[in-house]
Each structure stands twice: as structure tokens, then as C-alpha cells.
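User: These chains co-purify. Model them together.
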Amino acid sequence: MDADDQELYIEGHPCVVVDSVEMRYRVASSAASDADAEEATPRLFRRAVRKPNMVTVHALNRLSLVVERGESVGIIGRNGSGKSTLMKIISGQSKPSKGAVFASSTPIMLGVNAALVQDLSGDQNVILGCLAMGMSRAEVDEKFNSIVELSGLEKSIHLPMKSYSSGMASRLRFAIAASVDPEILLVDEALNTGDAQFADRSKLRMDELREQAGCVFLVSHSLDTIKDMCTRVIWLDKGDLIMDGDPEAAIKAYQEFTRHLSKGNNISATRILDEAKANLVATEVRGRSSRRSRG
Amino acid sequence: MSADSAIDPETVAVQPLSVDMRRLTRVGSRPSFLDYLVRLWDFRQFMFYDARARIQSGTRRDRLGSAWLLLNPVFNGLTYFLIFGLLLNTSRGIENFVGYLVVGIFVFQYSSGAITSGARSIRNNKSVVQAFNFPRAALPIGANVRELLRAVPLILAMLLIVVVLPPAEEITWLWILVIPAIMLQALFNLGVGLILARIISRVHDVTHLLPFALRAWMYGSAIFFSYDRFVTHPEVLAVIKLNPLFNVIDIVRDCVLYARVPQWQSWAILAVWALGALGVGLVYFWKGEESYGRG
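Assistant: Joint model of the two components:
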């Protein structure tokens, strides 16, 4: 490639490298396929064995990112833009269809979706969850009280998870996930649950974690939160990277875009999108002295 | 699709970045087999806690609580005594037929329960798999530890029935040999469970076939009859007697009912099956490590 001379050299060790990641799903669609109508096989038989109409969804198109220590990256975009998909790929919860994510330590996703075992009681779930994150029993005992305190469940901690309200369950999940001090922290809308009292407590803990973490990824619909907390913003739309850079500029462009959309000005909204895209400088990762040298 | 062409690769400026990848590891990558075993050992507390907590919660709704772990098999054995010992009064040419039957059923019940819960452990705990990052084999192993703990009252109930119900058997030193037999059986269950867990995580349909396969296996393990009565061909008999579960049952019957030292061949066959299944199961499961919980 002729781009070698302008290759940007990154000093030090980055925290997270997202290398040409792509995500596609094959899912069943309830829309009838054309082939069905024409088949001559008996209807009952067809119903029994028919494969559902499969559709490929492009959740995320080819994307590369290099995130260094000390950066906190906000991810913005409309619903279905691939924000959560990207977070899941970085945390290792889902495997990308193509490409790979490299990280300096195991990324921890902090969210309300850390699922627990319904039949067990809250305190059993705390211990089980902590052990599943690799803590020893002694560490769990040490942190147990602070987890229960953060969850604010008090005596309900001894009841089975089945009896919890969804707010209680998500508070407990958050408290468990927040009990480790990860180097790479991913936060997906975690602050939006619970009552005001819990929101304050969890925000305090989040701030603590963010200060300790080497790098942070944050997905939130609250642009103010992102503006406050992030040093870099990524704007995704329909699985494409639109902007990657300064929070002020990216948030401003995104707000402009949504303002036009909500007014129904689809054409001008698309123009903003295209403009941003045209200015985008995509990243290509070239590993040096690694197992996967590229380029 | 339009999503693909939305960003035309030619029009987007690409900035190559040279990144030092030496300290990075791929997120969610599978460790080497030995590392995997070491990691599993690190998660031993998780497995034991998981097993214990779920046993306790299983009978929490009952007034008699954990007593059901013992009462359940006792009633089970009494039912067989009632039907075969008192009502039908058949012996089918077998000495102490009720004891013969009870040993067969109870020992087989342990295996079928353990294999089923091992096989389903990944599917049933998909949310835990997605939420936390731990070696996935911890789940099938935890399920097998749980079943082994549950087997203790089962075996006690079995021995109790053998001693109490007529014709009562005497307790001999040979009874101790039941413990190594059950241990080998546990290893075999775990191996089969690991293999099935990976298959079922891919092809869920297999769960529907599992009960039938286990039932066929039960009828083929000389629980209600003796092989020698039906199979006259010596070569066929030799092959049938390779069945690992038949060998466990045979060993236990020899020790508990007939007070004779089990043949060394039975031990050898059982040990080969147990270690073979465990070895194959661990490697096969480890190979699929990256795929669990992502389907």
C-alpha cells in the first residue's frame, strides 16, 4: 500500500484495539418468503418443517478503533445504530462476524443486564456473581456488605430473586457488577434505573470506578452525561461510523441531525449525515510485533 | 444491501495506525488447554457454591425442606417394593429381586440426572454465561458436583432399603467399594455431560432426544432383568457388558447384595470409560469455549 509513509505511529500500549470488526445476524423474519406461496407440497407438512424466512441484519459495518489509556469514549446514535452491539463486542459478550477486539485486560461491562439466577436469593446471587467474576471467597466476604449497601435492598437481600421487582433486580445487578475495579470499563445506560436515591449512590460509585479505570466506554441517551464525562465521542448510525472525535463537535452535529429528523426534514438530516461521513477519517489498525501483523 | 454501500470504502479517507499489540490479548479468546484447566481450578469456589446454593433452593418451598432429598428416593424405592415385591411377587430368577431392582434404578437415576443437567447447563444458564467471563466448563462441572451431592442421600436411601426391606442384606466391608464405583461413575457422567453440553449449545433439538436415549440406555443396562437370561450368544453378551453403567450397577450389586468382590474386569471397563469420557469431554468442550452463550 502507498499509505505506508503517512502511517501514524502510536506510542505506548493502547487499552483497546478494535480491528475491522463487523457484525451480522441471521434472524427469522415473519414476512413470508416468495418461495412459500409457490410450493406444491401439502400445507400441513410445509408448516411443520418450513424453515423461517431468514434475513441478514447488518448490525455493525466494518469498524476500527484504537483507544488509549486515559480516554473515555462516549458512543451516541439513534436506536438500532449499533451502540449496544459495539459494546457487547468489546466486552466479549458477542463474537464479531469478522475482525477481532484486543484489550490489555478483560473489559467489564457495567449494566443492568448482568443476569442472575432467579431461584437463588439475593445474597446467594451476590456471592455467585462475584465468584463468577473471579474473586476468591475471602474477597467476596470483604466486599459483601458494600455490595448490599450499594444495592439498597437491605432485608430483601435474603429473598429469592424471583420475588424482586425489576428495579430491585437491576439495582442488585449493578451493585454486583460495580464491585470490581476494572481497567477497562463499559457502561451501558446503567444510571437510568432505580429511584433518585439509588441514582445518586450509583453515580458516586460510577465516578469512583471511572477515575480508577484505564479507559471507559459509555453509552447513554443523555448527551449531557456524555459531554460531562467523555474525552472522545463516536457517532454511529445504522451500523456505520459517522464521526469520531471531539465531544463538542460530534454532539453538536448529532443534535443538529436529530433536530432536522424530528422536524421531518429527512433530506437535510441526510445531508448532515453525509457531510459528517465525508469528513470522517477511518482507522486502519496495523499491529506491530504481534501475532496478527497486517498490511 | 443498501447498508453495505452506504459507506463506500473508496471515498472514506483511511488513516493507518501502527499499534503496539504486544501487551494485548484478544477479547474472549480461548486459553491453551493447560491454562484452561488451571483457570477452572481457580474457579472451584464458584462451582461448589453454585452446586450448594442450588440444592438448597430446590426444596425451599417444601415444609420438610432438605429432608425431601432423602425421602424422595426412599418413597421411590418403597413403590418398587410394593409393586414388584408384594403385588407381583416376581423374582425372574434373580436372588433378592427387589434389592437388585432398587440398586439398578437408583444408580442409573444418578447418571441420567447428572448427564441431563450437565448437558443442559450451558443452555439453561445462558444469561450467566453472557454476563460473566469465566471458563464455561465451570457450569457443567458445577452441575455434576450438584448431582453428586444429591446422589449422597440417594445412595444412603438405597442402602437403607437394602438393609431394611426383606430379604434384608447384611452390612459388610465390601460396601466401602461403592464409593470408588460412584466416583468413577461421576467422572463418566461429567465427560458425557461436557460433550452433550457443547452439542446442545449448538443444536438445541438434541435436548428433546436426550430423554429417549437415556430411557433406551436404562432398558439396556439390565435393571429389570439379568443379561444372562436373554442373551445367549457369548460374543454379544461380552459386547453388551462393556456398557459402563451396567458395570457400575454390577459392582454395586456385587458389593451390597451378594457380598462378593467385584470382578477386576468390571473395574477396568468402568475406569477406561470414566477417564476416556472425561478426557474426550474436556478437550471437546474446551475447543468450543468461544462459542458458548453467543448463539
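Residues 134 and 180 of chain A are 10 Å apart (CA to CA).
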